[in-house]
Write a structure and sequence with these properties.
Layout (H helix, E strand, L loop, with lengths): L21 H11 L2 E3 L11 E3 L1 H20 L4 E3 L9 H6 L1 H4 L1 E6 L6 E3 L21 E4 L2 E4 L9 E4 L4 H6 L1 H8 L5 E10 L14 E11 L4 H18 L7 E5 L11 E9 L2 E12 L1 H10 L5 E3 L4 E3 L2 E8 H12 E5 L5 E5 L10 E5 L6 H12 L5 E3 L5 H10 L4 E5 L1 H6 L1 E6 L5 E5 L3 H11 L6
Parallel strand pairs: 3-9, 19-20, 19-21
Antiparallel strand pairs: 1-2, 4-5, 4-6, 7-8, 9-10, 10-16, 11-12, 12-13, 13-16, 14-15, 17-18, 21-22, 22-23
The structure holds glycyl-adenosine-5'-phosphate.
């Protein structure tokens, strides 16, 4: 790079604290079916979660929003899907076998294993003992496995710790088959695995997670401009998910924080219940990876620039984010509690319709045999168009509360008048206002009402 990166912009002030702490969120997630501790039947499995019906649906919404913006709507990005377990030479060349490590220490007092870079003032973050640590050791985060029947050194392989290398080792294939010119982005969504020393904070840091990554290959002299572009573009994306801008900020990494491949990185940070932390990284990887794989494979990984008639090694800008971490941030930001005049507390997830696992719930006023077929008819009518649920258990008030708690923006109530006037009531989650609409106009009316729901309208 010939240019110098611009000076970091000043950091944003802290927003007011979120309404939910970690335990409240984890317990809501379990109670309502967003995420369960994995294999709970057998006592769970440390920091591992299984997504329930609502969590699975919400993850799909997040992936789809990313895919739409990062692949489908662009003319300069193409997707791939690479293998999770591939030739270990990839991880030797990328530097992960030698360098993908965290420093760890053991506390001699409580035997906890902690990350040395998380220890402040020589104090154990678990038991508070001061100066009672073993010497620092480097711990490699790669998950090792064996391919084939024999567990021997020659059969060692790794579960990928990032999806990114799939894009680098396929750069030449994608370039040739798509006949594209620079800039060219290659995008991928898929699971990654890291043997984290200190996973935790619910789904914030786990050993198995899902990444959405873009490797954007560009001319070296345009790379700083593209880095600035992608920082802003990625920050803007979170508006589509309804995360309030006050909860997000960009933070440029200090030189000492940079990963082994990175020339410059900015984090998009979210203000979590415990303070600011990484949500997404937007890294400038320079030509590190293409050069590393050219050296590792013995094949030139260059781009022939038809304008200058020269071969160049492109630079890469990489926005990389975890689906699970986005889901966590969305839930944490959306959680709200309000108390009415009678002192009753209502828990509301103020989700944007774009990420709400249920957009519309169909609720017959009561479990009455005359209402059931009409409620069924309305549900059948809406299912092809919206993410829906139908619920007839318990009082209508309790069912509204249940839908509020999972963030359903709109409920459609079928009552006895419906039998005469073929109209239903739409109830808004945030204002609790009600609107009477003929079934014949329901789909259009719901679309209009959903467009009005926005988490910033609190
Ligand atoms: N290819 C670059 C890369 O993987 P990273 O900062 O290590 O960079 C990118 O990871 C994103 O993946 C993070 O910002 C975070 O959203 C997510 N992520 C990383 N490790 C994770 C973990 N252990 N659990 C959940 N999400 C994780």
């Amino acid at each position: 790079m010939t240019e110098t990166p611009p000076a970091p912009s000043p950091l944003k002030a802290d927003p007011p604290p979120l309404k939910a702490d970690l335990d409240t969120l984890a317990s809501l997630a379990k109670r309502r079916g967003f995420a369960f501790p994995s294999a709970e039947l057998y006592g769970g499995f440390a920091s591992t979660y299984d997504y329930g019906p609502l969590g699975a649906e919400m993850k799909r919404c997040i992936r789809d929003l990313w895919w739409r913006r990062m692949v489908q709507e662009r003319d300069d990005v193409v997707p791939i899907e690479a293998a999770v377990i591939t030739n270990p030479a990839v991880w030797h060349a990328s530097g992960h076998v030698a360098g993908f490590t965290d420093p760890l220490m053991d506390c001699l007092q409580c035997q906890s294993r902690v990350r040395a870079d998380h220890v402040v003032d020589d104090t154990c973050p678990v038991c508070g003992a001061v100066g009672r640590f073993t010497a620092e050791r480097q711990f490699n985060l790669l998950f090792r496995t064996f391919v084939g029947p024999v567990e021997e050194a020659a059969a060692v392989a790794y579960l990928r710790p990032e999806t990114a290398q799939g894009m680098f080792v396929n750069f030449e294939n994608v370039l040739t088959t798509t006949r594209r010119r620079l800039p060219l982005g290659i995008a991928q969504v898929g699971r990654s695995y890291r043997n984290e020393i200190t996973p935790g904070q619910f789904i914030f840091r786990t050993r198995e997670f899902e990444q959405m990554e873009l490797e954007f290959f560009c001319h070296p002299e345009q790379s700083l401009e593209w880095h600035a572009y992608w920082k802003q573009e990625r920050l803007d994306w979170y508006r589509l998910l309804g995360i309030r801008p006050q909860q997000l900020r960009l933070r440029d990494h200090e030189q000492s924080e940079l990963a082994h491949y990175s020339q410059a990185t900015a984090d998009i940070e979210f203000h979590y219940p415990w303070g600011w932390g990484e949500l997404e990284g937007v890294a400038h990887r320079g030509d590190y990876d293409l050069r590393a794989h050219a050296a590792g494979s013995g094949q030139a990984l260059t781009y022939f620039d038809p304008d200058t008639q020269t071969h160049i090694v492109p630079h890469v800008i990489e926005p990389a984010v975890g689906v699970d971490r986005v889901l966590f941030a969305v839930l944490a930001d959306a959680y709200d509690e309000e108390t009415d005049a009678r002192g009753e507390t209502r828990v509301v997830l103020r989700l944007a319709p774009s990420v709400a696992p249920v957009e519309v719930a169909v609720l017959p006023l009561s479990r009455n045999e005359r209402l059931a077929p009409v409620a069924r008819e309305v549900w059948d009518l809406l299912r092809p168009h919206f993410r829906t649920q139908s619920d007839d258990a318990q009082s209508i008030g309790r069912r509204y509360r249940r839908q509020d708690e999972i963030g359903t923006p709109l409920c459609v109530t079928v009552d006895f008048e419906t039998l005469d006037d073929r109209a239903v009531t739409i109830r808004d989650r945030d204002s609790m206002a009600q609107l009477r609409v003929p079934i014949a106009n329901l789909e259009g009316a719901l679309r209009e009402q959903l467009a009005l729901v926005h988490p910033e309208r609190r």
